[in-house]
Amino acid sequence: MRLTRFALQLSLSMLGFMTIATASADDTELLQTVHGFLHEEARALGDELVIELHPPSARLPACEFPEPFLTRPGEVPLGRVSVGVRCGTDGRQVRYLQAEVGVVGEYPVLATPLSTGEAVRRDHLEMRSGNLADLPNRTLLDIDEIVGQVATRPLAPGQPLQAHQFRSLPLVERNQRVVVEARGSSFRVSREGQALEPGALGDRIRVRFDSREVVTAEVVGEGTLAVDF
Fold first, then answer.
1. Are 37 and 68 a contacting pair, CB within 8 Å?
2. For residues 219 and 182, what is the distance between their CA atoms, to the nearest angstrom?
3. Phi, psi (rounded to 5 degrees) for 208
4. pTM above the 0.70 mark?
5. How far apart are CA 227 and CA 229, in angstroms?
């Protein structure tokens, strides 16, 4: 079920609806257009959306042919957002509305305490339900982003998990003997070398071969790196 605070105001509080309408006779159409726009932009976040719109405070002329747009293009609206609306056939008149967009969804938390340096297993985690807009910035929502990561500090159960609380588990240690694969469209050649620095999955680190040649390669597995041509 999709919930919107604006829709609830219309259906449950005619007095509230009339107060909005009194501010501007055409606010209802404007708000409905912006509401539909935000719903379309945010629906990828989940099925149960909560959208609260703040009508313009000043008495303004009717906004004909409203065309909403996000003031930060490409960003999925969540939390407090600013929405611009172009009015008129030429779109030269622009108004701005404030909105609160939330989504009721699930997010992972620790089921048990975690010590510094301890790697996260799937059975360490459980899911909670709530408004994702109320979570701290950079909260991790995908369990697969957390499993295998190492805690950078002691973590208590039940709290939202953030990116800065974890680091990737090193797959290559400094001075470790590693295999470097040179890969192309029709060939693959492997050489053994020595890692000059540690690295986690996806990191690019320097490797020195016995010939003293140094290359930069990407960590693709435990003790394995790759260079693409």
1. yes
2. 12
3. -110, 130
4. no
5. 7
